[in-house]
Design brief:
This protein has helices at residues 2-6, 11-35, 41-50, 52-67, 70-81. It is mainly α. It has one domain. The termini are close together.
Amino acid sequence: MIFLAALRLPKAEFVPAISLMFFVGALGLTVGLLGFGVSGVRELGLSALATLPVFVGMSLGRRVRIALNERQFALLLLAIYG
C-alpha cells in the first residue's frame, strides 16, 4: 500500500491498482485455505456474506474520491496509511 502511494499514482490509477492487489491477495488466501482444508464451503459462504458491508464502504469511498482533487487524495492516503 505504501509502495503504491510512494509511486504517486493519480487517483484514477491508484484505486484500480490497489483493488487488484487486494483481490489477488484474497484469491490466493482463499485457494490456500480451501486447499489445506482449513476452510470449507460453509466458511466461504459466510465470508461472502461478510463482504456486503464492503460494498457500502466502496460506495462511500467513491464519493469521497470524486470530491477530492489529486493533492487532497494524496494527503488523505498519507494520513491514513503513512
